[in-house]
Amino acid sequence: MIRARSGGAAVAIRHEDGFLQRGAEVTRIEAFVDAAFAFAITLMVISIDEIPDSIDALKLALKAIPSYAASFLLIALFWRGHADWSRRYGLDDRQSQRLSLLLVFLVLIFIYPLRMVFDALFSWVSNGWLPAKFALSTLSDLRLMFAVFALAFGSMGLVSCLLYVHAWRLRERIGLDALERDLTRYAMLRWAVIPLFALISLALTAWLPMIPGVPWTVALPGCIFFGLHLVQLLMPIQHRRILARHGPLAP
Q: Is 38 left (phi over 0), alpha (psi -120 to 50) or beta?
């Protein structure tokens, strides 16, 4: 990070992502969001309902690690997104509080379909060696699981996007400079990609004919989200272009 100085006194900190630090102090809503995310991750912990009482039970619990790790990383993505937003803009008005609380509400709902989807994914790719703790009896059950996941995941991405939209509307009051305005628009686009993919998944869930014996037709509404991962890997290129266009980081 770069510390800006005026007359020898430190007045601002610009981080490597191009934003000045405005949220230096943790607000009550930010502390609540952090605690809620920690609680959500605790709910997903392996064998939270019981301690393994045998080696076989321990092996079964350890086989849940890949699903838990993937779920943890996805939850951490949204926690980090909110933490970055808080640091960049330092907002604590009513609209910011409402959106932050809505994000907490959604993540506490999201943990259930999240674990179900990743349990099903790892059970499928391992041909059952990594077991799922639930059973899908019909294609309708599978469609419902994908639909719930897409709704929850897309809603969280939409709320994260709306937090940046809110910051954009207050850009004059916050005092965003030209670089930060470009980066805010970039952040809005990056989060908006998530609900877009969720809508595609919902459309595939509703209208794609699932042909028995052809696995890709069954799994496509869930696998479509791997495309989101590729997009998120490519988008930092645009971030670097924005930084390069504005020249060396300066306060």
A: alpha
